[in-house]
Amino acid sequence: MSDSISEPPYDRVWNFSAGPSTLPVSVLEEVQRDLLNYKGHGMSVLEMSHRSKIYGQIISEAEATLRRVLSVPDNYSIIFLQGGGTGEFAASYLNLFASTAVREKQRKLGRQLSCDYLVTGSWSKGGLQEVQRLGGKPNVVLNGVVSAESGNVAYNSLPPVSEWKLGKPEETAFVYYCENETIHGVETPSDLVVDAVDPSVPIICDMSSNMLSRPVDIKRFGAIVAGAQKNMGPAGVTIAIVRKDLLERDDDPEAIRNLPS
Q1: Three-class SS of residue 83?
Q2: What is the DSSP code string of 115-172?
Q3: Strand 172-178, strand 203-206: pairing
Q4: How much is the average pLDDT of 207-223?
Q5: 223: closest CA among 195, 201, 254?
Q6: How far apart are CA 177 and CA 167, in angstroms?
Q7: Is residue 206 flagged as an active site residue?
Q8: Which residue from 87, 136, 145, 88 is spatially nearest to 116, judged by alpha carbons?
Q9: Contact by Cβ (8 Å): 99, 113
Q10: Catalytic residue among 105, 116, 125, 230
């Protein structure tokens, strides 16, 4: 380990909490050096216009690095957003239902498409509740496991795939799940989900707490969303990796009526 986080003058502690991750000392020292005068440009990055060439280089380099590390295919966009991962509960639903692909599928069906939710803990439950609040039509694929002794629902393991209640592919807009539930401690292997879901149905995955902890086969997902604070950087930034066809919209004003400007 190149950085010592316990030697003076820092006297830092190991942080194993489920909240913001520990950043390498070398990164913090670079931020400290550049805080007042970013690489000789006479101002802090905190003071720069987001439209400036200097900041454009920063964000372009960040995107290129993430694309390289995760092997993100060219037909996926990487989007840096403000806020936390919970904001993606609504954003995922609203933007998917505004996409041309989902709207055409819904027109063909002749009624509202459903959204499949795998509820494995607090975060996926929050996503389900948000879609219910927005008037969506969620289908609960699984909701924890039922204790044989008490009959209560517990979020401490996954039921077998044979017990999952996935919707019919032609009636489903997307499948949503949280890969690692930090509160209840259930991690859902991505292969388990993507192998069970029909390839025609895009999978939306919240990877806030384990993104960049292992290689991910991006092309098997419709979109991946994650708060940056667990493994990638400080809190306040959310990353969305979205297949470009799911970002396409038609000219119908109804498609964007419910989207905030």
Answers
A1: coil
A2: EEEEE-SHHHHHHHHHHHHTT--EEEEEESEE-TTT--EE-SS---GGG--PPPGGGE
A3: parallel
A4: 92
A5: 201
A6: 14
A7: yes
A8: 136
A9: no
A10: 230
User: In sequence order, which residues have a C-beta less than 8 Å from that of residue 180 and are 6 or more positions away?
Assistant: 186, 187, 188, 207, 208, 209, 210
The answer to whether 208 touches 225, Cβ cutoff 8 Å, is yes
Instruction: Give yes or no: 3 in active site.
Output: no
- pLDDT tens, residue by residue, 111-143: 999 999 999 999 999 999 999 999 999 999 999
Closest of 126, 192, 121 to residue 157, by C-alpha = 121
pLDDT in tens, 162-182: 999 999 999 999 999 999 998
pTM for the model: 0.88
Indicate the helix (H) or strand (E) that contains 237. strand 237-243
Catalytic, out of 206, 219, 251, 252: 206
- Asked if 83 and 107 touch (Cβ cutoff 8 Å), the reply is no
Give the chain's mean pLDDT.
89
Catalytic residue among 105, 116, 123, 125: 123
Q: Where are the alpha helices (DSSP H) in the chain?
A: 25-34, 53-70, 87-98, 100-109, 122-133, 190-196
- Residue 6 in this model has a pLDDT that exceeds 70: no
Half-sphere exposure (CA, 13 Å, Cβ side) for 36? 1
